[in-house]
Amino acid sequence: MWTVLRRSLVNKLNSIQTVIMYHINILTTGFASPNGIAFLFPFIVFQRELRDAGVKIRFFKGADKPRLSDCDVLFVESRFYSHRWARDGDERVLAEISNLAAKVPIVWFDISDSTGWLQPQVLPFVRYYCKSQLYKDLTLYMKPQYGNRIWTDYYFRTRSIQDLCPAKPRIVTEQESLRKLRLSWNSGIADYRLFGPQIMALRQFFPLNFLFQIPQHFTSPKKERSIPKSCRMGLSYERDSVAYQRKQIHDILESEMDTEKLSRHAYFVEMRNTRLVVSPFGFGEITLKDFEATLCGATLLKPDMSHMVTWPNLFRKDETMISHAWDLSDFEEKCSEAIECPGKLVELATAAQNEYRKALSRDQSKTEFCSRVLSIINDTIPSD
User: How far apart are CA 236 and CA 317, in angstroms?
Assistant: First the structure.
């Protein structure tokens, strides 16, 4: 009898899956900016999936909180220190980061828009430096680029476009530090439906997780559309090297369409009836318009993005979007070809939506988002 009971107990114990629970603290400014919201959004909506994978998350909005370092890994959102670099100076800020790093392993999450923009001064103090998008060739981070962006450097070199106050070069000085650079996730994992941004912004004032919802409804690319192409964009940028591409596209399109911004409701009505959405670079290569257009079933026309990697990747040339040269030499030709091939536009927009649906789905999150977080954690924590 005892033998039978013992076997039964052993079998039950063997059947129990032991899940190691990692405690992760996130130092953040909270839900105060679009990039900040997009960074935190998946931690909220995939909270259950993370816990099932063995990850427990806590948010902190102050570096002086006594329990901040009471965790296995500390995730630091770059925007938390963004206003302090100029106010307190690099030395003081880095001293604080160094003190934190002495207590707990730090992973830095750079949530800036541009692939090229970097904060190399923190590299000595962090285990990994994660970005929403990275250069395919990481050695580019060791080369000075005008405006700290690969395309602003291109316009500086080819068109002599200069800024009134040129940005200080941000480069990685030691090749070994490139090993710390990792790809995280871009701003696409958020809610960009008609009222999505307003609802998400409420989370800053009301700590109610149900405010964050994964978009479920996508407008079919096969829908009858009466507008061949549209381009709604701002042109006011402090740096001429950033604004140059948009201003050139505006000049090309000016005679055939209005490019001024609309109210959000009118903007969505237009996109749901548009076949091709022109989406130039802004502060970064990826803009929120890219995800809004995909939700609306329109096809993206963007400058060539083959220099970078990102996830979710809705930016594969001739697979999920159409791309044009940075010098705009083929821009009008690409527009004309696209409008003349409506079937191809439906095919591309459908592929982009399928990619986006997978990234937003709960099933896929277990293998994509959660796997990315777990991989970062496992590589950060020293093995015994």
Answer: 28
